[in-house]
Amino acid sequence: MRQLGIPTVLDRLIQQCILQVLQPIWDPTFHKNSYGFRPGKSAHQAICHAQQLVQDGRGYCVDVDLEKFFDRVNHDVLMDQVRKRVADKRLVDLIRRYLRAGMLDQGLSTERTEGTPQGGPLSPLLANLLLNEVDWELEKRGLSFVRYADDCNVYLGSRRAAERTMQTMGKLMGNLRLRINRDKSAVARATERKFLGYRLWIGPGRLVKRSVAPQAAAKFKQRVRELTGRSRGRSTEQTVGELGQYLRGWKSYFSLADTARIFLELDGWIRRRLRMTYLKQWKRGKTWYRELTARGLSQHAAASIASHSRGYWAMAGSSGLKIAFPNSHFDSLGLPQLGVPRLRNRPVRSRTPGGVGGRGRN
Question: What is the number of other CB atoms lying within 10 angstroms of the CB of residue 188?
Fold first, then answer.
């Protein structure tokens, strides 16, 4: 859990005004390889840049993760950078006061001696200002890097050069009184590290491709579990509506992934998860039998499922449930698909049609 510093409406308005004045002045001085929270730049551009660096032969990565960056920014170091760029002492004093503004948590006020409060409009700009010094130092040393906010990857041609660069990064961050998280940072092949939720891999013809990182897929599944949880007390239609919003945003962000298979697998997993929620809404036995026959299953198939003692997840994957709740059912509810199957209207084939253990489309 990260602490968020949410300003009052008036403070947010003032910070936004400061941002609109300072950003057009400061942003042109920032390094081109910095992509986070900048006009005209995005995470997708950062990922594509990293892909190009690896394609050019820089197969090793110095993956630097800063320990609680937004909570550990040193005010004195940051304000030195602000003073170099802002001549108006009143504005400098106002920015410092925003940095030191106390936090109200459960009725208790606590002072802030370090960090830039996440949630304020000024924080991303101040974070880029602080790390801009590191960017230009890396440029001076002839190193190829990509940075998005506090996520910075340096790409090199050999492991030995990467290990030396990791030591350099430690010194550069130390000069800013920032600490590298040694548990999350590493020197490795670029294809072994994730960056902004993506992982690079080598495809046919030695072309570098993009895929969804396993960690991102795991977080995705955890969020879907939360949205489809039984304790939420929502109908399936409401659940699908809320789930659809999340899926559309996730699909848009990971639209750069070159691996279509993972999207089809996640689609099948989501539908199986929703089929399981139906089963959990009904009581085993007669209710299962009644509901399944009402949805087109034969009496024999419905009885086979209703009398089975397997767990909910196993039952949700049966061919009988796929017949009762086909893909078209979820399409009618407005559930978006992450992937597009190559063959539409493909017939379902199963070892035991309408039974428990058959195989078919998810």
Answer: 13
pTM to 2 decimal places: 0.84
Of 133, 130, 146, nearest to 194 by C-alpha is 146
Per-residue model confidence as pLDDT tens for the chain (362 residues)? 666 677 889 999 999 999 999 999 999 999 999 999 999 999 999 999 999 999 999 999 999 999 888 888 999 999 999 999 999 999 999 999 988 887 777 777 777 778 887 778 999 999 999 999 999 999 999 999 999 999 999 999 999 999 999 999 999 999 999 999 988 999 999 999 999 999 999 999 999 999 999 999 999 999 999 998 877 667 788 889 999 999 999 999 999 999 889 999 999 999 999 998 888 888 777 788 888 888 888 888 888 888 877 788 888 888 888 888 899 999 999 999 998 755 444 443 433 334 444 444 56
Q: Phi first, then psi: give them for residue 210, nearest 5 degrees.
A: -115, 145
Residue (of 196, 166, 170, 208) closest to 62 by Cα position: 166
SS3 category, 60: strand
Contact 43, 148 (CB under 8 A): yes
Helix, coil or strand: residue 185: coil
Give the largest Cα separation in the chain, rounded: 82
Residue 28 φ/ψ region, left for φ over 0, alpha for ψ in the -120 to 50 degree band, beta for the rest:
alpha
DSSP-derived 3-state class of residue 357: coil
Distance of CA 338 to the CA centre of its chain: 15
Q: Which helix (H) or strand (E) holds 71?
A: helix 69-72
Rounded (10°) CA dihedral 260, 263, 267, 273: 150
Please report which helix (H) or strand (E) contains residue 113, including its range. Answer: none
According to the 3-state scheme, what is the secondary structure of 320-343? HHHHHCCHHHHHHCCCCCCCCCCC
